Amino acid sequence: MKKSLFLYLTILAVLSTVFTYAFLSKQVAFEQKRYEKTTKKLRDSLSLVSNQLADANYFSLTKNENAQNYFDSGTSEKIIQYEKLIPVVTEKLLDYNSNPKGNPYTGQDQICANKFIINKVRILNHRWIIADFSDGEIWGEVLLKYFVNADDSISFEVNQSLLYQK
Question: Quick one: residue 7, left, alpha or beta (phi over 0 = left, psi -120 to 50 = alpha)?
Fold first, then answer.
């Protein structure tokens, strides 16, 4: 009786060990496959987002080598670093928001009680800027030309402006 009890317990322990080993090895394989699938998905997503970001920044002074070379051309006595120019131009344009009649470079006169101010600016190249503006109710966009003058001042010129329907 004692011998058969030990035999049954030994068989039970061996079977339990075999099943535990099989379960754990399959679980590890499953986790590895899941990890590989997740990693592949994340890499694909990262690649997609990187491509979308590159497409979104295609029209940007920071990515446009030809426009950058304009400031570096050697035809002028000064070389302008575009990395430093971008925040300066943006700040100069946004400074006009403090005008009591609104930013004159929106290309729109004040319509309602609120003035038009520029919210967002994207410098496209060495000559053009696109900006988003609003008065809180009406939204629009403007295409501007900008110039870096010989005295390092920045001047702007409205090329075209549009308002969106409410």
Answer: alpha
Q: How is 78-134 classified by DSSP, letter by letter?
A: S---HHHHHHHHHHHHHHGGGSTT--GGGS----SSSPPEEEEEEE-SSSEEEEEEE
Whether residue 100 is found in the same domain as residue 157: yes
How far apart CA 83 and CA 104 sit, in angstroms, is 26
How many domains does the chain fold into?
2
Q: Which residue has the tokens 């322990």?
A: 13
- Residue 71 near residue 83 (C-beta atoms within 8 A): no
Number of helices (H), then strands (E), in the chain: 3, 4
Domain that holds residue 49: 1-57
Phi, psi of 5 (to 5 degrees): -65, -45
Tens digit of pLDDT for each residue in 76-86?
555 678 888 88
Residue 159 CA, distance from chain mean position: 26
pTM of the predicted model as reported, rounded to 2 decimal places: 0.69
